[in-house]
Amino acid sequence: MNEHNLEKLWNQILFNRVNCIVKEAMIAENVEAWLITSSEYNEDPLFRSLSGYFDYHSRGVSAYMMILKDNRFYAYSINKIDSSNSPYIYLKDNMDLDDFVQNICNIHNISKISLQISDITSINSGLSYSHFKILDKLTKKINIKFVSSDLLSTRVMATRHRFEKEYYQILSKDTELILDEVFNNIYKYTNTNDIEYELVRLAKKKGYSLWFKPDVCIQRMGLKKSRNFNCDIKDGDLIHVDFGVSNILNTDVQRLYYLEGFKKMPKSFEQGFKEALKVQSLICELLNKRNCGNEVLKEVLNRTNKLDIKAQVYTHPLGFHGHGAGSAVGRYHSLGKSIKQGEYNIFYPSTYAIESNSSKEIPEWNNQLVYFFTEEDYWLDENNSCFLSDRAKSIKKLEYNKLR
Predict the structure, then answer these.
(1) Which fold has domain 162-402?
(2) Coil, helix or strand at residue 229
(3) Which of 73, 139, 154, 353 is a Cys-bridge partner for 23, taking CB atoms 3.0 to 4.6 Å apart?
(4) Which of these, 2, 10, 23, 25, lies nearest to 326 by C-alpha position?
(5) What CA–CA distance (Å, rounded) separates 176 from 255?
(6) Whose CA is closest to 234, among 260, 256, 255?
(7) What string of DSSP letters covers 351-398?
(8) Whole-structure pTM value
(9) Cα 52 to chain centroid, rounded
(10) How many CB atoms lie within 10 A of CB 47?
(11) Distance from C-alpha of 145 to C-alpha of 162, rounded to nearest angstrom
(12) pLDDT tens for residues 288-328?
């Protein structure tokens, strides 16, 4: 998709997000005024998601202020917006932040403003100290108080507009195509690091940036670690890749590949991967039925324990950030435990990286414990949930004879 079409698409998405998602979230959270400020070179994490495609941050101070008063919704910008279909109202030139806020408060008789401050997630805590001092001084001039916008910000950032689904499917499919292009030519590479750098090169060639460095590692009979990096690849290796691209929205997928030459893939791998898919399916099922991530985590682990599946779950929201705002289901560094971010409500529609693994002792590998990692981009909707691209249903075999 070229820049012109991306701009058109994003500005349509933005118009719908501000006038629908932000408005509905403010109603749900009973917020009458929401202020998002940003400084040049110290951009707030929320700010980009509420800006036009070409609204670069080359301005000293930027700010948006959303008002919901007497059942009417208004969205203001401190800076003039070039786009003809911008959702924002522009008041006048050369306004300082305090003048901007005071003017709007006077127009709408505002007494309480929600700000981007949070004790739970960094995405919702982007208010700079310099802006806080400006706003604090404002309380001496007008009768106003400030509160956290954490719940509102989370709802807005986690909720997708249905108009975004088609673009997300394009991103997710392109992520898969990049992986296919690299691994279908696996004979070109001898080391896992080479594969990582090729994924980076190809993603950038196709116009994408990356929100994390690709991980390519192996499991091999005799190597006890579940993730071995910077390794020369050999016949019989199980290769694990974790990869995602970024262009407005973010993707995050994982795949397993088996290098099959003289060493055929153990039959036990098929059963191990089926168990991993069972864990993945349970997460998807329960995301549609439970109120928050911690509830999903608890029930998934209860059910997998009864099925004698050794499962680890660390599923996260996905969107404007790879580890996005919303209700998380476990965390990799706190496996099996309820977490603060898991207390948020699950919102619809939203997107998730359904990330988990199961492990199994493999008789063909001298009962070595092997981990079967899975991750898929998932569109979560009350009536129409689906994977955003083709779900990996098996470990892909790569012919070792083509190597060299």
Answers:
(1) Creatine Amidinohydrolase (3.90.230)
(2) coil
(3) 73
(4) 25
(5) 9
(6) 260
(7) EEEEEEEEEEEEGGGTTEEEEEEEEEEEEE-TTT-EESSPPP-SPEEE
(8) 0.94
(9) 20
(10) 19
(11) 35
(12) 998 999 999 999 999 999 999 999 999 999 999 999 999 99
CATH code for the structural domain at 3-158: 3.40.350.10
Contacts with 214 (C-beta within 8 Å, 6 or more apart), sequence order: 195, 196, 199, 200, 241, 242, 243
Name 253's bridge partners: 243
Equal CATH topology for 3-158 and 162-402: no
Instruction: Judge contact between 229 and 303, C-beta under 8 A.
Output: no
What pairing do the DSSP bridges indicate for beta strands 350-362 and 316-318?
Answer: antiparallel
| Cis geometry, peptide bond prior to residue 349 (ω within 30 degrees of 0) | yes
Rounded to the nearest 5°, which phi and psi values hold at 99?
Answer: -65, -40
Which secondary-structure segment (H or E) carries 172?
Answer: helix 165-183
Instruction: Please answer whether residues 47 and 153 qualify as being in contact, where contact means their C-beta atoms are separated by less than 8 angstroms.
Output: no
Which tokens hold the place of 342?
């898991």
List pLDDT tens digits, range 18-50. Answer: 999 999 999 999 999 999 999 888 888 888 889
Q: Domain residues of the chain, as ranges? A: 3-158, 162-402
